[in-house]
Specification:
Layout lengths: L5 E2 L6 E2 L12 H32 L4 H16 L1 H10 L9 H18 L9 H29 L2 H32 L2 H15 L1 H5 L18 H6 L4 H12 L2 H31 L4 H30 L1 H21 L9 H27 L5 H21 L1 H8 L2 H19 L4 H14 L6
Subcellular location: Membrane
Pfam family, one: MFS_1
Protein name: MFS transporter
Length: 457
C-alpha cells in the first residue's frame, strides 16, 4: 500500500495527511456503539450485586433485613455521585477529552475492586466484609457512570439523545442479564471468588473501547501520544469549583428541574423496594431457587434490553418523552394491581415470571424516558454535575426503598401491601411529572448561558 501524498504549492514539500483516528464527535454510529459498550460494562457489576448476590443470600436463608441492608449499602455510593461530578467537570486532562480519562479510571477501579472481592473468605459467614466489597464495587460503578453520562451529554446532539438512551439502557440490561446468568452459575458451581474474577476480566475487555476511541479529532489517545485539546472542550471547561456550584444552583432551582428531582426520588423508592423485594419474595415466599430467579430475571432483562434498544427510544423520540413516561407509569400501576389481585396464581409456573417480564420491560422504558428528560434539562456547561444530581437523587431513593424493606414487611406483614408501595410511588410521580415543562426550561437555560459570567478563582 502506498500512502496518498499531496504537495504544498508554497513550500514545495511533500506532505502526508494526518491519520484519522476514531472520534465520537465525527460519527453517530460510533457514538451509539461506544455508549452502548460502556453501559454494558456498567450493567456487569450490577447483575452481580443487585441480583445474583441477593438471590444467593436469600437461597442461603438470610433474612429480608440482612438482604435489604446489602442492597441499601450498594445503593449508597450512587447517591455520592454528586460529590464526584463537580470534580470531573472541573478537573480533567483536556488533551484526552473532558470525560474519557475519568471513564478509563472508573473502569480500572471496577476491575481492581472485583478482584479484591474474590479474596473474601467464606462471604456467607462474613456478611459485613461482603457489604463493604459491594459498596466499593458500586462506588466505581457510579464513578464510571458519572463520567459516561457527562461524556454522553457533551457529545450527543439533542436529536440523538432518546435513541442513544434506548441503546444505552438496553445494553445495560443485557449486561445485567448476562452477568446475572453467568455469575449465578459460577457461584453455584465454583463460588463467589471465581464469579467476581470472571466479571473483572469481561470489564477489562470493554475497557479497550474508551482506550482507543477519542472524544474529538486531534486529541491524544494516551498522555504520551501526540495531540491537543479541542477548542470545543476548552470553551466548555469550567475553571473552578465555585463556578460549578454557582451554575448548578441557578439551573437546578428552575421549576421543572426541582419538580423532576422530586419525582425521581419518589419513584426510585419504589424501584429500590422492588430490587430488594423480588429475590426474597420469589425464593422465600414462592419457593424458587436462586438459579430459577436468575434465569427468569435474566431473560426478562434481555427482552427488556432489546425492546429498550429498538422500541423504547423510538417511541420516546416520536411521541414525546413526558407523554410516553405517563403511559409507562400507568401500565406499571396496572401490572402491580394484577399481581396483587392474582395471589392465588403466585405459585403457578407462568404468572410471576410473566409479571417479572412485564415489570422489567416497563422499568427499562421508564428509565429511558426519565433519563432522556433529565439530559434535556441539563445545562451543557455543567452537564456531568447536573445530570449526576438527578441520578444521585434517584439512587438515594433506591437506597431508601431497599433499606426499608425489612421495616415495611414487618409493618404490613403481607406481601400484597408491601408490593402496593411501588404503585403508590408511581401515582405520585404521575402527578409531579405533569408539571414539568421542558420548553420553558430550555428557554431559561438559554438565558442563563447568555448571562454567564465566569467567577474569579
Amino acid at each position: 500500500m502506498f500512502k496518498r501524498k499531496t504537495r504544498s504549492l508554497f513550500l514545495g514539500k511533500t506532505v502526508y495527511p494526518p491519520k484519522r483516528k476514531l472520534a465520537l464527535s465525527e460519527n453517530a454510529l460510533l457514538r451509539y456503539f461506544t455508549f452502548s459498550s460502556l453501559y454494558t460494562a456498567q450493567g456487569i457489576p450490577e447483575g452481580l450485586t443487585y441480583f445474583a448476590i441477593p438471590a444467593w443470600l436469600a437461597m442461603n436463608g438470610k433474612s429480608p433485613a440482612e438482604i435489604g441492608s446489602f442492597v441499601a449499602a450498594i445503593g449508597i455510593p450512587w447517591s455520592f455521585k454528586i460529590l464526584v461530578a463537580p470534580i470531573m467537570d472541573r478537573y480533567t486532562y483536556l488533551p484526552m477529552g473532558r470525560k474519557r480519562p475519568w471513564v478509563i479510571i472508573g473502569q480500572l477501579g471496577l476491575i481492581i475492586t472485583l478482584l479484591c472481592t474474590s479474596l473474601i473468605n467464606n462471604p456467607l459467614d462474613n456478611l459485613p466484609y461482603l457489604i463493604v466489597a459491594g459498596f466499593f464495587i458500586s462506588f466505581f460503578g457510579a464513578f464510571q457512570d458519572v463520567a459516561v453520562d457527562g461524556m454522553a451529554i457533551d457529545i450527543l446532539p439533542i436529536e440523538e439523545q432518546a435513541r442513544a438512551n434506548g441503546l444505552m439502557w438496553g445494553s445495560k440490561t443485557i449486561g445485567i442479564s448476562l452477568s446475572l446468568l453467568v455469575s449465578t452459575w459460577v457461584i453455584n458451581h465454583y463460588g463467589l471468588p471465581y464469579a467476581t474474577a470472571l466479571l473483572a476480566f469481561s470489564i477489562l475487555i470493554i475497557l479497550l473501547v474508551p482506550v482507543f476511541i477519542l472524544e474529538n479529532l486531534g486529541e491524544k489517545l494516551t498522555p504520551w501520544t501526540k495531540g491537543q485539546a479541542s477548542l470545543k472542550t476548552k470553551k466548555a471547561q469550567v475553571r473552578n469549583l465555585k463556578q460549578i456550584f454557582f451554575n448548578l444552583k441557578k439551573v437546578f432551582f428552575l421549576p421543572s428541574s426541582l419538580i423532576l428531582g422530586a419525582a425521581v426520588f419518589i419513584m426510585s423508592i419504589g424501584y429500590g423496594l422492588m430490587e430488594a423485594l423480588l429475590p426474597v419474595f420469589t425464593i422465600q415466599e414462592i419457593g424458587w431457587t436462586n438459579a430459577r430467579f436468575s434465569e427468569v430475571t435474566a431473560m426478562a432483562n434481555i427482552v427488556a434490553g432489546i425492546l429498550g434498544m429498538f422500541v423504547a427510544g423510538a417511541l420516546v423520540d416520536y411521541f414525546g418523552k413526558i407523554k410516553m413516561l405517563n403511559l409507562f407509569l400507568w401500565l406499571s400501576i396496572t401490572l402491580i394491581l394484577l399481581l396483587i389481585l392474582g395471589k392465588q396464581f403466585w405459585k403457578s409456573s407462568y404468572f410471576v415470571p410473566a409479571f417479572i417480564l412485564g415489570y422489567y420491560i416497563l422499568y427499562t422504558f421508564q428509565l429511558i424516558a426519565i433519563f432522556s428528560i433529565a439530559m434535556e434539562l441539563c445545562w451543557k456547561r455543567i452537564s456531568a454535575t447536573q445530570f449526576t444530581l438527578y441520578m444521585a437523587i434517584s439512587n438515594l431513593g433506591r437506597a431508601t426503598g431497599a433499606g426499608f424493606l425489612g421495616e415495611i414487611k414487618h409493618f404490613f406483614t403481607t406481601w400484597e401491601f408491601v408490593i402496593s408501595v411501588y404503585a403508590l410511588a408511581a401515582v405520585i410521580m404521575l402527578f409531579f411529572i405533569s408539571k414539568v415543562n421542558t420548553k420553558t426550561h430550555l428557554l431559561s437555560v438559554g438565558i442563563l448561558e447568555k448571562q454567564h459570567q465566569p467567577l474569579n478563582n
